[in-house]
Amino acid sequence: MIITVGKTHSGKTIFAKSLEQQLNNSLVIDQDNHAEFINTFYKTLLPKQGPNTIKYAITQTIVDYAVNQTNFHLILCNSNCSQKYRLDLLAHFHNKGFTSILSQVFNMDSSLIYVPSMKITFGEIRQ
Q1: Cα-Cα-Cα-Cα dihedral of 30, 31, 33, 35, to 10°?
Q2: In whole angstroms, how far apart are CA 107 and each of 77, 112, 119?
Q3: Rounded to whole angstroms, how far apart are CA atoms 123 and 5?
Q4: Measured CA distances, 61 to 33, 42, 50, 79, 83 (Å)
Q5: CA–CA gap between residue 12 and residue 77 (Å, rounded)
Q6: Among 33, 6, 7, which Cα is nearest to 102's?
Q7: Of 30, 58, 98, 109, which residue is the least packed, with the fewest Cβ within 10 Å?
Q8: Do 1 and 74 form a contact (C-beta atoms < 8 A)?
Q9: Is 86 left (phi over 0), alpha (psi -120 to 50) or beta?
Q10: How confident is the model at residue 126 (pLDDT cuts 50, 70, 90)?
């Protein structure tokens, strides 16, 4: 289990997709895709105020399916998760037997980020 957390447009999705290409039997679960799906097909179901609970429900359904029906290495790509949510999420997956990595480098200056196994910097990816 790898969880990417960071600000909007900080490189979480780019990192997750690059990692998915390098890590055999892995799957990126990205909430941005779920939001886009809802906005395209079910916009009228979006709440007028408060949290986007339908997006969270779709994400949870996909994660539950992946955990219970596959043996993929999961890469969760979420934006701005609270520390409590991350800790609860990690505890949940540890109880399911997962080993986890929480990647929180996305609030750094992109020129400082280097992933040796990919032999690229995020500055190069964004070009």
Answers
A1: 180
A2: 15, 11, 21
A3: 18
A4: 14, 17, 21, 18, 22
A5: 6
A6: 6
A7: 109
A8: yes
A9: alpha
A10: very low
State the pTM of this model: 0.74
Cβ burial, residue 121 (10 Å; 0-12/13-18/19+): middle
Tokens 């679960």, located at residue: 29
Closest C-alpha to 86, from 110, 104, 65, 61: 104
- β-strand 120-121 against 73-77: which pairing, if any? unpaired
User: CA separation (Å) from 91 to 4, 46, 104?
Assistant: 16, 29, 17
pLDDT tens digits, residue range 45-97?
A: 999 998 888 998 998 899 999 989 999 999 988 755 677 877 787 888 888 88
Extract the tokens encoding 88.
Answer: 């609860």
Amino acid residing at 3: I
